[in-house]
Amino acid sequence: MCGIVAYIGNNNCKNILINGLKRLEYRGYDSAGIGILAKKDAISGKKIKSNDKVNKNKYEIKVVKQAGKIKELEKLLENFDIDGTVGIGHTRWATHGEPNQVNAHPHLDCTGKIAVVHNGIIENYAELKEELIKKGHKFVSNTDTEILSHLLEEYLKNEADGKLLIAMQRLLRKIRGSGAIVALSAEHPDELVAGRIASPLIVGISRDGNFFASDMPAVLEHTHNFVVINDYESVRITKEKVEIYDFEGILINREPFKVNWTLKSAEKAGYEDFMLKEMFEQPYGIRETMRGRLTNGTFNFEEINLSNEQIKNLRKIQIIACGTSLHAALTGKLVIEKWANIPVEVDISSEYRYRDPIVNDNFLFIAITQSGETIDTLAAIREAKRKGAKVIAVTNVVGSTIARESDSVVYTHAGPEIGVCATKTFTAQIIVMYMIGLYLARVKGSIKSDEYSQIIEEIEIIPNKVQQILNSADKLKKIADETYKHTCFLFLGRIYGFPMALEGALKLKEISYIHAEGYAAGEMKHGPIALTDSKTVVVGVIPQDFVYEKMLSNLQEVKARNAKIFSIITEGDNNTKKYSDYVFEIPKTSEELYGILTVVPLQLYAYYIAKNLDRNVDQPRNLAKSVTVE
Ligand code: F6R
């Protein structure tokens, strides 16, 4: 969702902001804008039409914004000549007010001396707007954000002694909802201030100046040193300094941390799209996620932070997640119950947070989230912690809010995932589920040692098998080329194949906009089979496992109703070929591990269908990488 980049330093900031915003495109957005502090006498004679405010001081804020993609903003910027070394930029994902130029950020106050960008939702904005209107403020947009610049204006005038930071602190106390907010003021040209409530905000530190951003890739080309901002903290950055204050306004000392993500890892590296690149990075992501945790058959899982005694006493595990991460959770349930013999409940985060869940002693809570910022998952964690649960987060983003609010974190080391659609973070989550299941089973002694050794051996070579599948991507392209015109897709699977059927359907619908559903194949007769006819493609996830024959019967049933059948089969399965119009063969593995191998062809298949339909696979419509609003 919305992306923020801001800079104060020695360099001209226009390109820093635009390039930073481009690196945040993956978050999803529908308009973009920048605001730059320009010395009045340095402003060229070119005519500036929109949002151009002139004030009596030495500096003025130039705001240029546009509906649509950043390239539209760049086109508009060709009409302006703005130089300045302090500025803020924003990509907006509309929540209040349509995605047009007026509603795009930054938003100015009445005087044009304060500009604000914001990621989040101000829940009490209507009442605050009403109060401000009574005081004579005039609004031009339909956004909730616009009240923020006006509130800062009020506080600067009346309560903050002219100090921008104090005004921001006052504002954080006044608003309800969520927000990462960055403000720029023409009367405070040596600083940028920001505040945060429940939306991601980081500070990047470099020799040539300092940054605010929603996410690290925005500024990776300038720095690898970051500080994360927590809820209700306010921050002041200058060219040389970063000052963080807590809710009471007390200065906090927080050391920066270094990330080893490279800029290259956040670029396409010759691939047509980030999604394609990220799918091909899966063997690496899986290996990196295993590295140091599973070595020669032995686990080192210190980060789980549970004693053997605690593990032996576990009575229940609760896993929560949303979307694709939920499908990793469903896989986690299957393998943990099977290997570690501990009951596992899986909930959708947005349901868990409101259902008054029971938290008992000897209970473990696992939250899975690639971004570490999903607001529903965060709220569910807070609810579980309030009830006394110990929370383990599984996430890909170091320093993310969920990582920081959990008792312990198991990082997936898939590298930055820029495509909105989760692919390599998903297979990394799956490998974590496998490892947690086996680790708990080993400590509990609930798995036979020969079975354990055989599965471990298989896990260690999973990256090679994923690579083997990727090497045959052209076969999936061919099947996609022949089937992409169909308008109804049903993905069927059983047991380990069921979460992957759900994931295959989710991938297809989110990037191709074709109607697709995932079902447990046994459910077909209870309704969905009514949908099948010659226009339907049924994608069967049918590896050679203990439900293989049941699954085969289900496929025969839909075949009898004239559906086209595309089956993901284990190599050498000639029997399923007889009933299928298309097949893709995956290598053999242990039956519990088929999930990770079956999902890779489903991702590729969805990708090639979407490409046939000329979709923007990296930024599908209406979707965002980090879902930071409810
Ligand atoms: C689908 C996808 C989403 C996310 C969901 C949860 O490709 O990426 O369904 O899985 O929004 O996000 P995280 O994992 O960041 O909590």
Largest sheet: 8 strands, antiparallel
SS-derived structural category: alpha/beta
Radius of gyration over C-alpha positions, nearest whole angstrom: 26 Å
How many β strands by DSSP?
Answer: 27
Q: In angstroms, what separates the terminal alpha carbons?
A: 11 Å
Sheet with most strands: strand arrangement: 3-2-4-1-10-9-11-15
Q: What is the beta-strand fraction? A: 15-25%
What small molecules does this complex bind? fructose -6-phosphate
Morphology call: globular
Number of helices: 19
Q: Please give the share of residues in helix.
A: 25-40%
Supply the key terms.
630 residues, alpha/beta, eight-stranded antiparallel β-sheet, 27 strands, binds fructose -6-phosphate
Structure notes:
This protein is α/β, with parallel strands linked by helices. 35% of the residues lie in helices and 23% in strands. It is built from 19 helices and 27 strands. The strands form five sheets. Strands 3-2-4-1-10-9-11-15 form an eight-stranded antiparallel sheet, with helices on one face. Strands 5-6-7-8-12-13-14 form a seven-stranded antiparallel sheet, with helices on one face. Strand 7 and strand 8 (192-197) form a beta hairpin. Helix 4 packs across helix 5. The chain is globular, with a radius of gyration of 26 Å. Fructose -6-phosphate (F6R) is lined by residues 322-325, 369-371, 374, 377, 421-422, 506, 510, 627.
Write a brief structural summary.
By secondary structure, the chain is of the alpha/beta class. Mean pLDDT is 92; it is low at 42-56. The structure holds fructose -6-phosphate.
